[in-house]
Amino acid sequence: MDKVYNLVQNIRHLPEIHLGKKSLHLLQAFLHGYIEYHNEITGESNYFFLPEFQKYVEQRFNINTTHSWASLITFYSSSDEDAFNNFYKILDEFFSENAN
Asked: For an engineered disulfide with 24, which of 49, 79, 83, 90 has Cβ 3.0 to 4.6 Å away?
């Protein structure tokens, strides 16, 4: 399974340890930093499942945009914590539908 997916699952269970609080904004920043560091160390340009997840979120909300998946989920949520919880619901749907 994808390294970032496993990391995201660890964060799901203990967000306060990794992020300080349940926050989609903080999760997105954390992931960008992790991926940037990974790509720098390995010399790769690997964004793991996130480009496909971006397309999935756009399709789910029936919108084509330059806004990030995190911005879209946040827009359709009542708070940053709600967006964090919605992210995991959408992520589960994404992997359930794309399990090959």
From this structure: 83
